[in-house]
Amino acid sequence: MALQLDRAPVASRTVSESSYECRLLGHAWEPFNPIDVRGGMFANMLHLRCVRCFTERHDGIDSLGGLGNRRYIHPEGYKIPKDEKPSTPDLRLWIVRVEKQAARRRKSARAS
Questions:
Q1: Can you tell me the distance from the alpha carbon of 96 to that of 24, in angstroms, rounded to the nearest whole number?
Q2: What average pLDDT does this structure show over 53-70?
Q3: Torsions phi, psi of 30, nearest 5?
Q4: How far apart are CA 105 and CA 102, in angstroms?
Q5: What are phi and psi of 83, to 5 degrees?
Q6: Is residue 89 a part of any domain in this protein?
Q7: What is the reported pLDDT for 50?
């Protein structure tokens, strides 16, 4: 699939660009305190949210510190149909192009 400089590397426009960054680089997790998530049978819960795409991860931790269960909540627009999923090389090329564009914009803004 050919990548375009100004768009994310799939045909679907509903998937946020930050979700592509997370697919390539991994999520940027930060702890948070949810209002409406329950731990079920685990007294200890670890709640994390990605600062880029806002995916949430909820881990149930047992009394020995082991992972009891894990659940993800993805924001609308995060999931990509299998037939539209870009390859890792395509994601790498896309993010390099996006970063080059951003650097040019910053340089141009400084020059004016």
A1: 11
A2: 92
A3: -140, 135
A4: 5
A5: -75, -10
A6: yes
A7: 95
18, two tokens: 């930050």
Tokens of 65: 């510190």
Give me the residue label for tokens 């090329």: 93
Does residue 8 lie in a domain region? no
For the chain, the domain total comes to: 1
Q: Which residue in this structure is represented by tokens 């909540």?
A: 73
pTM confidence score: 0.70
Long-range contacts for 76-79 (Cβ within 8 Å, ≥24 apart)? 76/14, 77/14, 77/15, 77/16, 77/19, 78/15, 78/16, 78/19, 78/53, 79/15
Whose tokens are 């509903």? That residue is 14
Position 7 in a domain: no
Domain that holds residue 101: 17-111
- Establish if 42 belongs to a structural domain: yes
